């Protein structure tokens, strides 16, 4: 690609791969090297030394660390994420399945929170200083500080136990249609919606307030444009650029926050997978799970950067230089 | 285009472009109504150019906002009418109001960079104007492009595809003007349209507005604090003071023979006649009254030199003072007797003998910046000059000419290239300020353009000056406090201001604090970077007087950077003209201004409007300033020079020829063929009180 944007994309992709590699090193160090003797860690202090050695040989942990790392990365490049000790089966299908489930949940979260947060922020900005603005500002600030596990339990009590509007578990029965899936996902999505709503609403409010008081908005008004055009074409376009960046960056955060939610709602997503792998000392699974989360984070950031650049001509021009 | 106004098209054509009838506007602050405009009446005929002048806070921008109904949320029209093309703006419904904005009124603001939407192309924003008027998308773009051509943009297609930040300030302002004129408005409002632009670009924009006004037949309301710019463009002028129109009349007569003491005072504040060594500028003592504080009598009485008992009781009506002129002064026939209000002594010039050793000597200073991609930019190239004790060197040139780079090198904020040399009092000093001995650091100080950003808002005046005394002069304790008081006195502030924080001070007071800080440790050289361009005319004159008094007392030398040639001429012993990082001319102020001088200097001088409204033939500089990354070969000015005469201009850099008066010019033309300026006449008003 010869366009400036293409070059930017290539450069950022290169940087992303570099980051991904660094993540893999850190994950590897954390999961393979720190426990020292994986076989011993798995089997416990009372196990027979021969059993430990046999297990280490079986999972390949008796080789030098560099060799283990090279074969792990080599395997990954060919699509082999390693063998799960706990399941005695390849890790990849588990990680893939869990990732897909988590993405569905993240998707649900953002489908709810983006319109809600942006809408609330813009409404607040259009009514600066009025009661509605105060309500939105106070609400967004106080909702942000409620931890997921508190709001999750409260939500479960209210909607699943008392009102019985929504199913308690996030996992849907096998073969359920998309609608049933959605129904199961709403409740688990809400705790993170509550946390993210504050961030997004406040960013959207600040950006809109600034754009509303700008000279170019005044110019647009004085051109005699209808208010709706002024708002959509001139105000929101400039106001929401920082918000969009924040949203994209928060996607990664949301994925990290899923550990709590998925456990509470017994949802077999990536968070749950990583947690149970850690409990079971299933190092291959743990590595692959964390790496998957890291990769997702990196992709989300990359997309955020691309969107920011596409929406901001000044940044785009700088790419050209 | 359908025109469905409440009155017939004929009537609309016949009615004046703008009619303000007893217009009063109030802002509600903490539950109180503060009158910002009080009973302002004025009429602008179709096709007429009307200038509204006044200092900050006089309410002149409020006029523009009120008549388009875009007052801030706490502002409202509380009396009288504003009629645009015959329509009372207060009575328009939402749709009619939009139609008025789309069709009848257009406005150009101060900062074109901010007035354009940064994330839309110029083309999109141009087309919008025509789309409102009913053009289809492609037709709107075509007409937008035509419109850009009409504001003399040579490459409209490229500009249409550009984003605002890709254009220069002058080009952006042309785009804004094109957008404004696109609707063929009855009234075009210009609010400080040239503030922040270079003198040459300011002149271009003013010329353009003047030509277009005639082409389009639009009436112009030109709001400015720049009296000279108003004089060069407008037929009639209104002077606004504390929300009242205190004087009105034809521009030329009003400026040459003011009939209100405020107007007369403003004119006397302008540095416009003579050179350094002449009379100090007059000023207007005191401050404009806060809105609503004067309830009886004349609003100007507390600051007026002609004030009588009657003025404090009777509010003066608008007296007819002949030939379409009006003045709100009981003693409008005595304005000529207005006494001089400033007690400042005449501006001194240093006694210069051949044996005087320069305080500052710059030799072969260059500054090269390396850009990404290993490209080099020479921001300054081989500048050598000297500065005598007590002397002022004026530095002029457009943005990007290297003035600020030179100042930074002198201050040590940027390091000059190898091979250059800075001598202070005969001894070389290091390039980097951190490597300089304290004596050298305290000897060279700076006064910035904007005192708001130069002073830390969290600190008191005492702390601000005291810290400079402590750090630079190394004085602490009791001695420091007495030094602070002494400095405060020197800049004509009182100890009452010691506990004040910057926000409690007026702009002029803040600049005085900045000056006091620069003088904290007996400096030898002060770089004054546009010291008054953020200030009102009356405040400017007081600061300029202060600077020259301090110079006379302390034999300090100034390097004065300013785009206002009047200011430069008033304060400078010598003037240096810079272009693309090179000195093009340097010499005694009178020789540089009266000539023979460099063609670039000639163009700069001809660009500056004068308050008498008479401008010589303007010399237009073609094209943009070339990029310093790739400067033109030969004489760097050859791409824009109106006097370019031979191949040699493109191939050989001209020698810097010095005559026996110490006047050097970098041009291939022989002196006798170089241009001369208008002789600087002593304008009557400037000497009236002397």
TrEMBL record, chain B:
<feature type="domain" description="ABC transporter">
    <location>
        <begin position="18"/>
        <end position="267"/>
    </location>
</feature>
<dbReference type="InterPro" id="IPR003439">
    <property type="entry name" value="ABC_transporter-like_ATP-bd"/>
</dbReference>
<dbReference type="InterPro" id="IPR013563">
    <property type="entry name" value="Oligopep_ABC_C"/>
</dbReference>
<dbReference type="Pfam" id="PF08352">
    <property type="entry name" value="oligo_HPY"/>
</dbReference>
<dbReference type="GO" id="GO:0055085">
    <property type="term" value="P:transmembrane transport"/>
</dbReference>
<keyword id="KW-1003">Cell membrane</keyword>
<dbReference type="Pfam" id="PF00005">
    <property type="entry name" value="ABC_tran"/>
</dbReference>
<keyword id="KW-0547">Nucleotide-binding</keyword>
<keyword id="KW-0813">Transport</keyword>
<dbReference type="InterPro" id="IPR003593">
    <property type="entry name" value="AAA+_ATPase"/>
</dbReference>
<dbReference type="InterPro" id="IPR027417">
    <property type="entry name" value="P-loop_NTPase"/>
</dbReference>
<dbReference type="GO" id="GO:0016887">
    <property type="term" value="F:ATP hydrolysis activity"/>
</dbReference>
<keyword id="KW-0067">ATP-binding</keyword>
<dbReference type="GO" id="GO:0015833">
    <property type="term" value="P:peptide transport"/>
</dbReference>
<dbReference type="GO" id="GO:0005886">
    <property type="term" value="C:plasma membrane"/>
</dbReference>
<keyword id="KW-0472">Membrane</keyword>
<dbReference type="InterPro" id="IPR050388">
    <property type="entry name" value="ABC_Ni/Peptide_Import"/>
</dbReference>
<feature type="domain" description="ABC transporter">
    <location>
        <begin position="360"/>
        <end position="605"/>
    </location>
</feature>
<dbReference type="GO" id="GO:0005524">
    <property type="term" value="F:ATP binding"/>
</dbReference>
<comment type="similarity">
    <text>Belongs to the ABC transporter superfamily.</text>
</comment>
<protein>
    <submittedName>
        <fullName>ABC transporter ATP-binding protein</fullName>
    </submittedName>
</protein>
<dbReference type="InterPro" id="IPR017871">
    <property type="entry name" value="ABC_transporter-like_CS"/>
</dbReference>
């Amino acid at each position: 690609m010869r366009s400036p944007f293409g070059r930017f994309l290539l450069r950022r992709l290169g940087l992303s791969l570099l980051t991904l590699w660094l993540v893999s090193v850190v994950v590897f160090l954390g999961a393979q090297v720190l426990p020292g003797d994986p076989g011993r860690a798995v089997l416990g202090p009372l196990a027979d030394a021969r059993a430990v050695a046999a297990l280490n040989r079986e999972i390949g942990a008796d080789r030098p660390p560099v060799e283990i790392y090279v074969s792990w990365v080599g395997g990954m490049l060919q699509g082999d994420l390693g063998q799960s000790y706990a399941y005695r089966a390849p890790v990849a299908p588990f990680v893939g399945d869990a990732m897909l489930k988590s993405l569905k949940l993240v998707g649900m979260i953002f489908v709810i929170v983006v319109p809600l947060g942006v809408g609330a922020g813009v409404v607040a900005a259009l009514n600066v200083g009025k009661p509605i603005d105060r309500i939105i500002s106070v609400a967004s600030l106080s909702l942000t500080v409620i931890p997921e596990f508190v709001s999750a339990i409260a939500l479960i009590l209210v909607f699943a136990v008392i009102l019985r509007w929504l199913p308690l578990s996030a996992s849907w029965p096998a073969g359920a249609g998309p609608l049933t899936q959605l129904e199961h996902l709403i409740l688990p999505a809400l705790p993170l919606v509550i946390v993210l709503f504050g961030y997004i609403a406040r960013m959207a409010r600040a950006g809109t307030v600034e754009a509303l008081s700008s000279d170019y908005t005044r110019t647009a008004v004085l051109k005699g444009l209808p208010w709706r055009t002024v708002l959509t074409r001139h105000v929101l376009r400039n106001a929401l650029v920082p918000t969009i960046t924040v949203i994209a960056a928060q996607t990664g955060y949301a994925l990290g926050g899923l550990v709590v939610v998925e456990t509470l709602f017994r949802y077999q997503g990536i968070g749950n997978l990583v947690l149970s792998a850690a409990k079971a000392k299933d190092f291959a699974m743990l590595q692959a799970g964390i790496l998957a989360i890291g990769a997702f984070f990196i992709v989300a950031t990359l997309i955020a950067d691309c969107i920011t650049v596409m929406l901001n001509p000044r940044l785009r021009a700088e790419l050209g230089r | 285009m359908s025109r469905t106004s409440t009155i017939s098209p004929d009537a609309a054509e016949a009615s004046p472009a703008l009619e303000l009838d007893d217009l009063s506007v109030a802002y509600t602050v903490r539950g109180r109504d503060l009158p910002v405009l009080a009973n302002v009446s004025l009429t602008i005929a179709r096709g007429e150019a009307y200038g509204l002048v006044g200092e900050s806070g006089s309410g002149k921008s409020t006029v523009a906002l009120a008549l388009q109904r875009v007052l801030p949320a706490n502002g409202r029209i509380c009396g009288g009418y504003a009629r645009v093309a015959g329509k009372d703006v207060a009575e328009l419904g939402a749709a009619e109001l939009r139609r008025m904005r789309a069709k009848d009124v257009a406005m150009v603001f101060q900062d074109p960079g901010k007035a354009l939407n940064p994330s839309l192309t110029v083309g999109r924003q141009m087309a919008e104007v025509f789309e409102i008027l009913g053009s289809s998308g492609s037709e709107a773009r075509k007409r937008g492009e035509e419109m850009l051509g009409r504001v003399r943009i040579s490459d409209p297609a490229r500009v249409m595809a550009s984003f605002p930040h890709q254009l220069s300030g002058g080009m952006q302002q042309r785009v804004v003007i094109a957008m404004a004129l696109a609707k063929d408005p009855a009234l075009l409002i210009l609010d400080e349209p040239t503030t922040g632009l270079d003198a040459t670009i300011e002149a271009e924009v003013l010329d353009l507005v003047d030509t277009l006004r005639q082409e389009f037949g639009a009436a112009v309301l030109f709001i400015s604090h720049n009296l000279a710019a108003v004089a060069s463009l407008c037929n009639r002028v209104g002077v606004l003071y504390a929300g009242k129109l205190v004087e009105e009349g034809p521009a030329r007569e009003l400026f040459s023979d003011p009939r209100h003491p405020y107007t007369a005072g403003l004119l006397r504040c302008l540095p416009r006649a003579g050179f350094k060594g002449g009379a100090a500028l007059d000023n207007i003592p005191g401050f404009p009254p806060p809105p609503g504080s004067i309830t009886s009598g004349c609003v100007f009485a507390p600051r007026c030199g002609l004030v009588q008992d009657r003025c404090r009781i009777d509010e003066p009506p608008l007296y007819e003072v002949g030939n379409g002129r009006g003045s709100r002064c009981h003693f409008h026939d005595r304005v000529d007797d207005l006494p001089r209000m400033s007690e400042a002594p005449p501006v001194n010039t240093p006694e210069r003998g051949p044996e005087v050793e320069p305080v500052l000597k710059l030799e072969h200073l260059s500054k090269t910046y390396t850009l990404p991609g290993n490209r080099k930019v020479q921001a300054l190239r081989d500048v050598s000059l000297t500065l005598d004790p007590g002397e002022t060197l004026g530095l002029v040139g457009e943005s990007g000419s290297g003035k600020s780079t030179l100042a930074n090198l002198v201050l040590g904020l940027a390091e000059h290239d190898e091979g250059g040399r800075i001598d202070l009092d005969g001894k070389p000093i290091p390039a980097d300020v951190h490597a300089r001995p304290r004596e050298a650091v305290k000897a060279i100080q700076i006064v910035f353009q904007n005192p708001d950003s130069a002073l830390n808002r969290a600190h008191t005046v005492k702390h601000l000056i005291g810290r400079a005394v402590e750090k630079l002069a190394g004085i602490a304790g009791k001695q420091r406090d007495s030094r602070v008081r002494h400095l405060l006195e020197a800049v004509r502030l009182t100890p009452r201001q010691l506990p004040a924080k910057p926000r409690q001070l007026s702009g002029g007071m803040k600049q005085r604090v900045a000056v006091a800080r620069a003088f904290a440790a007996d400096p030898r050289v002060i770089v004054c970077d546009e010291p008054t361009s953020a200030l009102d005319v009356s405040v400017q004159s007081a600061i300029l007087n202060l600077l020259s008094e301090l110079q006379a007392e302390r034999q300090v030398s100034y390097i004065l950077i300013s785009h206002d040639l009047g200011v430069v001429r008033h304060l400078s012993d010598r003037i240096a003209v810079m272009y693309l990082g090179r000195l093009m001319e340097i010499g005694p102020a009178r020789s540089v201004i009266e000539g023979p001088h460099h063609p670039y200097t000639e163009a700069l001088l001809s660009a500056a409007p004068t308050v008498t409204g008479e401008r010589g033939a303007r010399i237009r500089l073609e094209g943009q300033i070339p990029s310093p990354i790739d400067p033109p070969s030969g004489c760097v000015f050859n791409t824009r020079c109106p006097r370019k005469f031979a191949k040699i201009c493109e191939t050989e850099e001209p020698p810097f020829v010095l005559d026996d008066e110490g006047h050097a010019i970098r041009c291939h033309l022989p002196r006798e063929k170089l241009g001369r300026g208008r002789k600087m006449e002593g304008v009557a008003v400037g000497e009236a009180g002397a």
